[in-house]
């Protein structure tokens, strides 16, 4: 019996495009557009100037504040411009670097030692200076997540290998091809938090990954692989925690409130790479997939490479594209242009045809209750949405709108195709804006 959580939905997996395709390296870009904000929190300040020559791994963006993460050059070459440019999250200040293709590595990039000899403070500093953020898509600075308040006693670390979004297979391939790095990174996280118990949760539609990770941890007494029932959103933090260790995060709470820290398997693998080689987060594995892509692939892509270049490398579109999404179809961000760069949180580039991208016309709610039954956060989406659509955001808050994890399960299951997720997002935004205004 595989572990799981209450609620959830079963969208078509659509992983067959790439699940058996090994990771390969994409061509380096001629020009890299590196955003100074690729993370939750404050944007970085540029520390290079137009005309400067930079090297691979060189810090080019200095974080401002604790909740931030430095940005590094993914290529060597000359800084062509520092200006706003379209990115997956909107127009952002970018450092635009023209590649000299010398691939010169910056002097700071060297092995940082071994987790056996490094102190937990040293490991945390390596993670911070490496610009490592959550690579499942959230982009939360990892050093912040690994610095809980002293009153929050952490006793468990869980790695998210569920990859429950349809189409995406980047984490799947990392678990198959880089399992030892994942374990190494997990052990580094456990040392930083002074934790003796680690889990790796993986859905049962990836049995080969489950076996690969079990083999990688066979000599690790404190690490356990947890096979999970395939169901969306199994990879959401609160749902993953319940599925793995049966602890329930309270309403309005965080994983640390039940003594848990959750990280992505890709993040753990990057931590291992940064410790072993000194190379900061300058590239990532991204699944390029969908019905419109001629040759779907799992690619190691340099941060700053434009979507259009990656799509061309995969053979381009085989039919007219209806929508291009960064991430998966449930929680990803639709893009209005292909001139956006791959960022640290770009787990996927999903290209759908016109038919798949068409949004059905919504009808009146029939009070079937399906959205309530499947909501993994135990909410009543129909009421939160109804009040939001009437601009009654205080009422939406009473129905605990802020507990919504924005997984989109309610919109997926709704027979009337109501804009549930979209209207709930609006309510959350308005509620948070009001709270900020009141706090000032």
Question: What would you note in describing this structure?
Answer:
The chain is of the alpha/beta class and 440 residues long. It has 3 domains: 24-109 and 280-356, Ubiquitin-like (UB roll) (Roll); 120-277, Rossmann fold, CATH 3.40.50.11540; 370-439, no CATH class. It is built from 14 helices and 17 strands. It has helices at residues 120-129, 142-145, 170-177, 179-193, 207-216, 237-245, 265-277, 307-313, 354-357, 370-374, 381-389, 393-398, 409-413, 420-439; strands at 24-25, 31-35, 45-46, 53-54, 59-62, 71-72, 77-87, 90-99, 156-160, 197-203, 223-228, 260-264, 283-289, 297-302, 321-326, 333-335, 348-353. Strands 1-14-13-17-15-16 form a 6-stranded mixed sheet, sandwiched between helices. A 4-stranded antiparallel sheet has the order 2-8-7-4, with no helix packed on it. Strands 11-10-9-12 form a 4-stranded parallel sheet, with helices on both faces. Strand 13 (283-289) and strand 14 (297-302) form a beta hairpin. The protein is globular and about 60 Å long. It starts with 23 loop residues before the first strand and ends with a helix. The relative contact order is 0.15. The model has no long low-confidence stretch (mean pLDDT 96).
């Amino acid at each position: 019996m595989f572990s799981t959580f209450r609620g959830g939905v079963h969208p078509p997996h659509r992983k067959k495009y790439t699940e058996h395709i090994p990771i390969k390296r994409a061509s380096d870009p001629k020009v890299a557009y590196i955003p100074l904000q690729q993370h939750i929190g404050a944007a970085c300040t540029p520390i290079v100037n137009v005309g400067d020559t930079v090297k691979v791994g060189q810090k080019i963006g200095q974080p401002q504040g604790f909740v931030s993460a430095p940005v590094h050059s993914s290529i060597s070459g000359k800084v062509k411009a520092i200006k706003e440019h379209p990115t997956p999250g909107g127009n952002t200040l970018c450092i635009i670097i023209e590649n000299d293709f010398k691939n010169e590595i910056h002097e700071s990039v060297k092995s940082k030692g071994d987790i056996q000899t490094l102190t937990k403070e040293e490991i945390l500093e390596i993670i911070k200076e490496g610009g490592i953020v959550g690579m499942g898509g959230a982009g939360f600075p990892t050093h912040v997540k690994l610095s809980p308040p002293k009153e929050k006693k952490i006793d468990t670390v869980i790695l998210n290998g569920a990859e429950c979004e349809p189409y995406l297979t980047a984490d799947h391939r990392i678990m198959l091809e880089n399992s030892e790095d994942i374990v190494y990174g997990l052990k580094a996280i456990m040392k930083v938090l002074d934790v003796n118990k680690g889990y790796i949760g993986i859905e049962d539609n990836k049995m080969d990954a489950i076996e690969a990770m079990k083999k990688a941890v066979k000599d690790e007494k404190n690490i356990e692989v947890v096979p999970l029932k395939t169901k969306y959103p199994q990879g959401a933090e609160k749902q993953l925690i319940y599925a793995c260790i049966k602890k329930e995060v309270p309403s309005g709470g965080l994983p640390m409130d039940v003594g848990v820290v959750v990280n992505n398997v890709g993040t753990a693998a990057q931590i291992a790479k940064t410790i072993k080689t000194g190379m900061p987060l300058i590239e990532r594995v991204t699944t390029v997939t969908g019905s419109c892509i001629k040759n779907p692939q799992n690619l190691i892509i340099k941060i700053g490479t434009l979507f259009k270049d990656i799509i061309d490398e995969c053979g381009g579109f085989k039919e007219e594209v209806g929508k291009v999404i960064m991430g998966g179809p449930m929680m990803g961000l639709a893009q209005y242009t292909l001139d956006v760069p791959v960022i640290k949180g770009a787990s996927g580039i999903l290209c759908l045809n016109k038919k798949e991208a068409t949004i059905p016309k919504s009808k009146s709610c029939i009070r079937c209750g399906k959205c309530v039954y499947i909501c993994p956060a135990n909410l009543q989406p129909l009421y939160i949405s109804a009040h939001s659509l009437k601009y009654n955001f205080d009422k939406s808050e009473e129905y605990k709108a802020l507990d919504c994890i924005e997984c989109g399960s309610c919109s997926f299951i709704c027979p009337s195709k109501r804009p549930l997720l979209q209207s709930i997002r609006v309510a959350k935004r308005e509620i948070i804006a009001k709270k900020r205004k009141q706090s000032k």
